[in-house]
């Protein structure tokens, strides 16, 4: 199965490497798993929360209390995945009781900069998306 190319008439860039001027070439690469990771319910919220923490570092319990609705198991799983991908570093302190803190890496902070463009797009298009949702959910007879 080949890669699908979506041709867009309007480019957000003046020119695209390897493409025609004014046409954006988009080739998704789902095999790396990063888009799926960023698309889950909690990952971006955990990264964002660490990014606004003092020193970009928080204890597990502080993260859990600030992310309303996340279970201990899901926060543990999310943090392990972020650690595995290099977005977060885990610091263990052998105090009594033991203390664990999680810190956002530069790469983790960088993904937030990348997601900023998506936030701008959402801000610019949310009203239209909501309108489309209403039309879909309540079709005229």
Describe this structure in words.
With 141 residues, this protein is an alpha+beta fold. Helices cover 48% and strands 15% of the residues. The protein has five helices and five strands; from the N terminus they run ββααβααββα. It has helices at residues 34-38, 43-52, 60-66, 72-85, 106-137, and strands spanning 6-8, 24-26, 57-59, 88-93, 99-104. The chain has a three-stranded antiparallel β-sheet. A two-stranded antiparallel ribbon has the order 1-2. Strand 4 and strand 5 form a beta hairpin. It is elongated. The N and C termini lie far apart (40 Å). The model is unreliable at 3-20 (pLDDT under 50).
Descriptive labels:
single chain; 141 residues; alpha+beta; three-stranded antiparallel β-sheet; two-stranded antiparallel sheet; 5 strands; 48% helix; disordered N terminus
Write the layout of secondary structure elements.
Blueprint: E1 6-8, E2 24-26, H1 34-38, H2 43-52, E3 57-59, H3 60-66, H4 72-85, E4 88-93, E5 99-104, H5 106-137
Antiparallel strand pairs: 1-2, 3-5, 4-5
